[in-house]
Each structure stands twice: as C-alpha cells, then as structure tokens.
Amino acid sequence: MFAALSTVEPPILDLSMAKVVESDRPWSRERLPLVQDRVRERLGQLSVRLGDADWLDGAFSAGDLMMVSVLLRTRPSGILDEFPNLAAYVARGEARPAYQRAFAAQLAQNTGTPPA
C-alpha cells in the first residue's frame, strides 16, 4: 500500500497535473515527455517486481487493491498499455468482486449517492 501511494502514484499525479493544469503553459510541451518518462520508469520497476505473478505479494491483498486504483490513473495516457503484465494485473484487479465493492463504496462516498 505504501509503494502504491508514495512511490508509484506521485509521478502519475504529476502527469495528470501536467496534462490538466499546466497544459497552457509555454514550457508544457517540453516538460510532458519528461514527466511521462518518470511514469514509465516507475511502471517499469513495478512491472519487473510483478513479473508473471497474478498479485504483488502472493494472494490478492489490500495492497493490490490500492495499486490497481493508482494504476488506473495511467489509462488515459496509454502508458499502462506499454506494460502488458501491468495492464493484465489491473484487469484482474478490476474483475474481483472485492475491488468492485470497494470502488462502488468509494464512488458513493465521493458522489454522495448510495452504492447500487
């Protein structure tokens, strides 16, 4: 869980900021590839760590739940697809009933509507 939030997520959030908040800045075109490369570096490290395993630490855990949620933020950029084992990992995570329940509860909390 700590790796998801303190190691993998920061460059992903930086990418979101670069695309959404800073895109109108004159230096954004030069900065964006640097930020994307930092995301690729982190995902490359994670890809090696995951290897061909289904989950990060044996059985599906809260750490996987957190990591899948963090990795979802990379989908719009297309960077996740550059790492087939991570894309498959995210798909496995999203398919799990525990993930779907957690995501529905989070969405309900964020939107103020009860889960379906």
UniProtKB/TrEMBL annotation:
SUPFAM superfamilies: GST C-terminal domain-like (SSF47616). Coiled coil: none annotated. Its EC number is 2.5.1.18. The keyword Transcription does not apply. Keywords: Transferase. InterPro entries: Glutathione-S-Trfase_C_sf (IPR036282). Signal peptide: none annotated. It comes from the Bacteria. The keyword Transferase applies. GO terms for molecular function: glutathione transferase activity. This is Glutathione S-transferase. It comes from Patulibacter medicamentivorans.
